[in-house]
Protein 1
Amino acid sequence: MDKTSPIIELRDISVRYGNGVLALDNITLDVNDQDLIGLIGPNGAGKSTLLSVILGLTKPTSGSVKLFGNGVLAKNLKYVGYVPQKAQAQDPNFPFTVFETVMLGRTARTGLLRRLGARDRQKVVEVLKLFGIYELKDRKIGQLSGGQSQRVFVAKAIVAEPKLLLLDEPTSGVDAVSKAEFYEMLERLNKEMRITMILSSHD
Ligand code: ADP
């Protein structure tokens, strides 16, 4: 892909679900390298569907999608991080610690077959510190506030070193102060780590 071509190219995308609902109607959108894009709209507007199309999970009824100048292929998806809606609303019995959860994100990069080593642990420590959650590393996920666990799930996506990060309603259920801090953190990631981002919100 040459440097100036868009990271994502959506052309005339429509999605009609089996129940007849037209979730997306002729969407055309380019996302360029290092963009930080907000998809804003009420519940049901089609935000999750759009992210799902970019991830190749939902096949458009019509239109075309390019990711890094190609189709939505596994080798491209390796560079895409995704934080699903309500990732932070974890089962309180979720057995992993913060450190272990973020470390799991590293397997997205290394594949399951390579053993995680010192370099992986170093990367996890670096990202935990960057996100201000290093001191929580030995806590179980179920013992965190909404704002804290949301950072953990973004950290988990970031340790895989994505070029593109998609976040579906990352601030739902989080208080206003945590929301403001969270958006600042995303801006820093976007600028300093040069990660292209799309986040959806109904605010
Ligand atoms: P948002 O993320 O903006 O809340 P969605 O993309 O989840 O919007 O939903 C868009 C529309 O598509 C809604 O009317 C929703 O009910 C419908 N929808 C979403 N997913 C499905 C599905 N798997 N099957 C049928 N309809 C769906």
Protein 2
Amino acid sequence: MHPETRFRLPAADAISLARTFGTPLYVLDEATLRDRIRTYQAALNELWPATSLTYASKANGTLALLQVAAHEGCGIDCAGAGELLAASRAAIPPSRCHLHGNAKSPVDLELALELGVGMIVVDSTDELEWLIQKGARTVPIALRINPGVGTSTHQKISTGHLKSKFGIPLLDGRAEKAVQRCQEAGLNLVGFHIHLGSQLREAEQLELGASALVEFAIEMMQRQSLDVRYLNLGGGIAVRQLQSDPPVRVGQFLKALFRPVAARLLQEGVMATLAIEPGRSVVAEAGVTLYHVMARKDIGDYKLLAVDGGMSDNPSPALYDRNFDVVPTREDECDTAFSIYGAHCESDLLFPNTMLPADSQAGDTLQVLCTGAYNSSMASNYNRFR
Ligand code: LLP
């Protein structure tokens, strides 16, 4: 059994917070969050002279969290006008924000230009033409490249394969044509970006994408005389979703990813800024969700609990069949398997086969670990629960 690395509340605090604020309740631990960011910064500083850490705010856009990330020196990756406005409300200078998105609307792009964002990561030739037409020549842009690299993660969060909707394909020459178009139109193209997917455990897959990105950048320097100043390797580093999973060592992961890239860039004398933009691995393990049990039903041997939340505060069991560790606040031995359902008007099984004390019952407080990422940011108002 690996030692626990994820934040969890002591039982008494879980009960008291649940009573004070009501449930379902997201709780984020600032110390864990700062620690994760510092681990990233320290690892990056060892690997390359110019690095940049951008926090992907889609993972959790809570304003206080954005402030902590910015205070720790992160840039903020924003997936549209809403996330840009959230960063503004958190008093983060727009110059530290990057606009992302595969289908950005004129509203997203106009706001980014008006605010003066630090970078627009262009995802398609249509978007490029829009920027050219608007005469957006000063804003730094990076082209998101689709390297055609598949990853072993849930198919819904694999984004760098050949048929992905994201990025400009590398393989059929379209990416090079986009570079030419930027050069002709006098856009401020600073470099390239990839993002292969999320919850990626194997650095090797990211390395494949990174190597394709670097080779392309070198070719563009040589063939198109592009001054490559920025290369973004994306996010996607996995977290320890369950205690039974091995912990993910960010330092080792980044070493495996950066070393070959750094060696190749040095060989060619390219001193570009190397950037990454993690979301999940910054915040997932810093967050827990508290629920109250509302009902217990024993149907023969099948023991069922229902809590006062569900797919509206955590959609990932339904979307990605993701499992979570559930920690009771009762001290008795966890010797009985329960199926834990939510409160929505459907059979929303949240946490199957969860070991809890035999006398678990209505009124108990339960703590669910590793919910800091893609829970509050993906919450819905289904059944008008909030
Ligand atoms: N950069 C870009 C361009 C992205 O699209 C994403 C995530 C990230 C960075 C950060 O990836 P991370 O480090 O968090 O894996 N809702 C899904 C995850 C979707 C990921 C979306 N893009 C889930 O709950 O698994």
